Amino acid sequence: MSGQFSRRDFFKVAGASSAIAVTAPAAFAGDIPEKWRAPKCTQWSWEKPVQPIPESEIKKVVETDVVVIGAGLAGVAAALGAREEGAEVTLIEKTKSWGARGGHITAFGSKVQAELGVKIDYAEIVRRLISWGQGRMDERLLWMFAKKSGACMDWAIDMCAKNDVKVTLWEGYYKGPTYTEYPVTHFFYNKDVSLDYTYGNSTGIGNDVLVPAMLKEAEKKGVKTYFRMPAVQFVRGRNGDIEAVIAGRKGNFTKFAARRGVIIASGCYASNEEMRKRWAPYSLRVDAQIYFPAKTNTGDCHIMALQAGGAMQKLEDHAATVHLEAGAASYGFLHVNALGERFKNEDVNTQSKSCTKELQPHGIAWTVYDADWVEQVKSQVDSNLAGGLFYGQMWQPWGSGWNKDVEIATQAQHIKDGKVVVANSVKELAEKMGVPADRLEKTIARYNELCAKGHDDDFGKRKVLMTPVLKAPFYAGRLVSSLLAMSGGLHTDPSLHVLDAEDRPIGKLFVCGAAAGDYFGSGDYPTICPGMNHGRALTFGRLAGILAAGGSIDKVPDLKM
Ligand SMILES: Cc1cc2nc3c(=O)[nH]c(=O)nc-3n(C[C@H](O)[C@H](O)[C@H](O)COP(=O)(O)OP(=O)(O)OC[C@H]3O[C@@H](n4cnc5c(N)ncnc54)[C@H](O)[C@@H]3O)c2cc1C
User: Fold this and answer.
1) Which of 80, 238, 462, 495 is the most exposed, fewest CB within 10 Å of its CB?
2) Backbone φ/ψ region at 5: left (φ over 0), alpha (ψ -120 to 50), beta
3) Which residues are within 8 A (CB) of 542 and not within 5 positions of it... i.e. 6 or more apart?
4) Which helix (H) or strand (E) holds 476?
5) Is 368 touching ligand 1 by the criterion CB < 6 Å?
6) 3-class SS at 505?
7) Do residues 266 and 296 touch, judged by C-beta distance below 8 A?
């Protein structure tokens, strides 16, 4: 089980790393870090031959219809989906409990959206998602999501209502004219909780309430759960189908024999550096990598599937979910790199900012602002610059506004923690940032000139967001990026089977959630639908459960688009 963290709240962990201490840009001290270099030609550890676990080491056999591996959002949805088809379901999880983090969840056409009168052209969103990924995905999966996610969200909402868990639509999405997100993001919360998010502290909100509520339902409906039970090897039968999964620890293995199917719902591989080196070397550039519970997402079942004849999605690099720390360290003010130079239009989402930051010298960038920052942040919010860049919007329910007090309190904490530096002159600020003072002074002078002119000749930023840096004290927040999830994975198709390298399904082996591939194009995670990782975990989790149990997904009503 996890603490309460949003996908855009990772500063506590990131801040713990001395490599990103704000006063001394450590990356400048030496050579390009080894991990950023191109991988050497090597034999990857998963390519080494594996021996089948001998029958003598198997101490117990459990027979069931469907085995689900992983008790995250995708796994509990899969277990429920299969159980509701009448299958006998066994859910195995390697840790002692369920896993969750964050809580923004995409769905198209849910009852919440209908009740709130939200009308969107969902087909247009799919087309934008496809173009975001340069068309390099299995489009069929995106249309499947578009048609089924609303019904799957409604299914989760009904289940949660029985446990006093409520849902709303997130209003903190980005609504700028050139970069626009959609009101498709749902989140769950316990009734009577505060939705304030002062410096990342909140309880009873997000997937920490959704996942246990769904697991409770699953267990009530008869799903059998085994915790501290890591899956380690698939057993493939003579006809090539997956017959069983072996789990547990050496000397005490259990064989879970599945009559109908095995579902991989074991999450992504972001905590496996070797896999990132192989499939997403770009992701190694981030300042931090975090997950809750920590290091559970090590790609175990990807490797097991590869060893059983499956393949990874064909498209490389895999997409990675990389976000900035929110709040004082990533507002939409002037951004400068470690040379003290401006390098972008700051009117963009957190994912794009993280990615362009990594491309700057030594991956370092700052946001610079002045004494009038609170009013200026308000004008940024009023101009629809949003999408989780502000703390005061993190759990902003539909119909409410930006929370100024949360923003002020969080900025003060950022200063205390040394993530934002403060100075009485630009020269002093530059010293604290470790950037050349003369360059910073020039950059600020140019920016102020453009602000006065009311036109950003250099990067085309909207006039309303061009606020000068004039009045002491001056502030600089270090942009800190964190890898939250890998969003590429095992080769799959709309039957949700794992496929081999020749696109043939591996019999009885299914995949859903972040372990699955072919959904996102290369490199970037599409934030235009905030919460797409969770959205597909919920939707494809349920659908994989139905399919593995032998049911038809036609019974999940299609959204009319
Ligand atoms: C701080 C943070 C916030 C985030 N916020 C958001 C957000 O708001 N919206 C969003 O869309 N995405 C968010 N993400 C990403 C998102 O949480 C994940 O991509 C998503 O939860 C994956 O769900 P899943 O069910 O596929 O996998 P997981 O939730 O990772 O569940 C997989 C489970 O499988 C278990 N497991 C792994 N290997 C084995 C094995 N060998 N045997 C048995 N069990 C195994 C793991 O222990 C785990 O419990 C966030 C990520 C982070 C780090």
Assistant:
1) 238
2) beta
3) 77, 78, 80, 81, 152, 155, 556
4) strand 474-478
5) no
6) strand
7) no
Question: Is 53 exposed, middle or buried, given 0-12, 13-18 or 19+ CB atoms closer than 10 A?
Answer: middle
Residues 75 and 205 in one domain: yes
CA gap 179, 226 in Å, rounded: 45
Please state the domain count of the chain.
2
Q: Do 5 and 102 contact (CB within 8 A), yes or no?
A: yes
- Say yes or no: CB of residue 532 within 6 Å of ligand 1: yes
Any atom of ligand 1 within 6 Å of the Cβ of 538: no
Predicted TM-score (pTM) of the model is 0.93
Question: In terms of C-beta density within 10 A (0-12 exposed, 13-18 middle, 19 or more buried), how is residue 197 classed?
Answer: buried
Residues 524, 432 share a domain:
no
Residue 1 placed within a domain = no
Cα 160 → chain centroid: 22
Judge whether 547 lies within some domain: yes
pLDDT value for 5: 42
With b for 16 or more beta-carbon neighbours within 10 A and e for fewer, the 400-413 pattern comes to eebbeebbbbbbeb
Question: Does residue 532 sit in the same domain as residue 394?
Answer: no
Domain shared by 231 and 129, yes or no: yes
Beta carbon of 419 within 6 Å of any ligand 1 atom: no
| Per-residue confidence (pLDDT) for residue 325, from 0 to 100 | 84
Q: Are residues 341 and 471 in the same domain?
A: yes
Residues 209 and 110 in one domain: yes
Question: Could you tell me the two tokens for 416?
Answer: 């205390």
Please give the distance, rounded to the nearest whole angstrom, from the Cα atom of residue 456 to the centre of ligand 1: 41
How much of the chain, in percent, has pLDDT values that exceed 70?
92
Shared domain for 393 and 466, answered yes or no, is yes
Residue 395 CB less than 6 A away from ligand 1: no
Question: Which whole-number Å values give the CA distances from 9 to 4, 174, 327, 332, 366, in the listed order?
Answer: 9, 17, 9, 17, 18
Per-residue model confidence as pLDDT tens digits over 257-293: 999 999 999 999 999 999 999 999 999 999 999 999 9
The model's pLDDT over 26-67, given as tens digits with 9 standing for 90+, comes to: 344 445 566 666 666 668 999 999 999 999 999 999 999 999
DSSP line for 305-355: HHHTT--B-S-SSPPEEEEE--GGGS-SSEEEETTS-B-S-S-S-HHHHHH
Q: Are 149 and 289 within one domain?
A: yes
Q: Is 543 a member of any domain?
A: yes
